[in-house]
Amino acid sequence: MFPDSVASGSVRSAAELNEQIRALWLRAGGSLSAQEREEYELLVVEWAAAIRGNVIKAA
């Protein structure tokens, strides 16, 4: 799910992705498993794409 959404452009807002990242850390208790780390990395990539999209729209 994540790689496709990153490749085609994020449909989720940066704020929504930020909340998902925060929730992941809370669920994990501050220490991510290998699977959670992978999910975190994909969320951060998608979040960065959403931020870039917002900057481009603002310009």
Offer a few descriptive terms.
elongated, 3 helices, 59 residues, mainly alpha, disordered N terminus
Mean pLDDT: 85
Point out poorly predicted stretches. Answer: 1-8
Biggest sheet features:
none
Radius of gyration based on Cα positions: 12 Å
Oligomer: single chain
Q: Report the count of strand segments.
A: 0
Shape field: elongated
Supply the helix-strand structural class: mainly alpha
- Series of H and E elements: HHH
Distance between the termini: 29 Å
Measured by DSSP, the beta-strand proportion falls in under 5%
Helix segment count?
3
Provide the helix percentage. Answer: over 70%
Plain-language structure description:
By secondary structure, the protein is mostly helical. It has three helices and no strands. The longest helix is centred in the C-terminal third of the chain and has 25 residues. It starts with a helix and ends with a helix. The N terminus is likely disordered.
